[in-house]
Design goal:
Layout (H helix, E strand, L loop, with lengths): L4 E5 L3 H13 L3 E5 L2 H10 L4 E5 L7 H11 L3 E6 L4 H9 L4 E4 L4 H21 L10 E4 L2 E4 L4 E3 L5 E3 L2 H11 L6 E2 H8 L10 H13 L7 E5 L3 E5 L5
Parallel strand pairs: 1-2, 1-3, 3-4, 4-5
Antiparallel strand pairs: 6-7, 7-8, 8-9, 10-12, 11-12
Length: about 240
């Protein structure tokens, strides 16, 4: 099996080397870039499976690099931030990141987050393989179609809506339980592969992001909030 391709953009040479060495020893093919310019050049030349993006770079805004990836590649994205500030986390998730890690971080934590995001990517890829032909290549609901082959949505007017790894995993999880209230902890474990905590707003931001993509033609279908519990997909019928 080919090694997963990971690219790191981090201006701190020591930290970049530590991350690269640890992930390489764990079986990944790792490329290092020290700044935004080198990162842009690398991702223009070839596809990657996952990018680890430092937000504070001398020549680039990390959020802009995330937007670039979302426009040009289908890969996982993990944000590195030195600020334990909910704003950075929320904005990172809003622009398309799949997870975040606060510096300084134990290498094992970053490795766990990398594996979690890659697992979500491989989950949707496995659905599309012939050996799992029993799984539907698409799920129809409320006039929408979730295309598991390309991790995308088609709206009622046949408009194409791209989904991030996390958005796809969340919507697929909700569609597996239509009309059923899903607890936050259950969704966090199934989507992010970690338990929910009160301070972690990752799931709430992800739900809000998915709602915005569905709202223009959602009709009666909606992702509802259940106070103190979690979320429920209502008004949709699987066909």
């Amino acid at each position: 099996m080919d090694k997963k391709q990971i690219v790191i953009v981090e201006d701190d040479a020591l930290q970049r080397e530590v991350i690269s060495e640890y992930l390489s020893r764990s079986g990944f093919e790792v490329s290092q870039t020290p700044n935004g310019a080198a990162f842009r050049e690398l991702v223009r030349q070839r596809a990657v499976d996952l990018a680890i993006v430092d937000l504070q770079l001398p020549d680039a805004d990390g959020f802009d690099l995330i937007r670039l990836l979302r426009d040009t590649q289908r890969c996982g994205i993990i944000v590195l931030t030195a600020n334990d500030d909910p704003t950075d986390r929320v904005v990172g998730l809003e622009v398309g990141a799949d997870d975040f890690v606060v510096k300084p971080h134990p290498p094992r934590e970053l490795l766990a987050r990398v594996r979690s995001v890659l697992r979500r990517l491989s989950d949707h890829e496995m659905v599309a393989t012939p050996r799992l032909a029993a799984e539907p290549p698409a799920i129809d609901f409320g006039g929408w179609t979730l295309d598991v082959m390309v991790r995308g949505l088609r709206g009622p007017a046949a408009e194409q809506i791209d989904l991030t790894v996390s958005e796809f995993a969340l919507l697929k999880e909700l569609l597996a339980h239509p009309g059923e209230v899903m607890e936050r902890d259950q969704l966090m474990r199934n989507v992010f592969h970690r338990p929910w905590s009160y301070e972690d707003r990752s799931l709430d931001v992800l739900v809000a992001r998915l709602r915005r993509k569905l709202e223009p033609a959602a009709g009666s279908m909606r992702i509802g909030s259940v106070r103190g519990t979690g979320y429920v997909l209502s008004g949709s019928t699987l066909q």
